[in-house]
Amino acid sequence: MAGMPVTEHTFGERPDWRQFAPFEGAAHTFEQGDAAATTVDGRDIVVAGTIYPTNDEDAKGIVLYDVDVTDGDGAGTLVYSGTANEPKLTAMAAAPTDEAKMAMPGIRWFPTMTHPTA
Question: What is the pTM of this model?
Fold first, then answer.
């Protein structure tokens, strides 16, 4: 809406878990109170690198950048295709489970450059 103030929050450096281009992602609205959010500096944040919506067989993608859902829904990007640097991703959020890896066939995992098979 015209005239609405834009609020931007920066929570430290913007780390990047991506390894190689290209990537494909989709716009996603993260809801206030999202179960994937964690508290960072008193704010509810869906952290970059989070396997979303859960780190299991229901995984749909990886959150590209932090999304603040403290004051309401937040817009972000969910990456569903590309190469993820697994050590960086693990340091940022959590290690992806084998079930999550299987649920996201478009994501390749660096440094192994493999995708688990059934």
Answer: 0.83
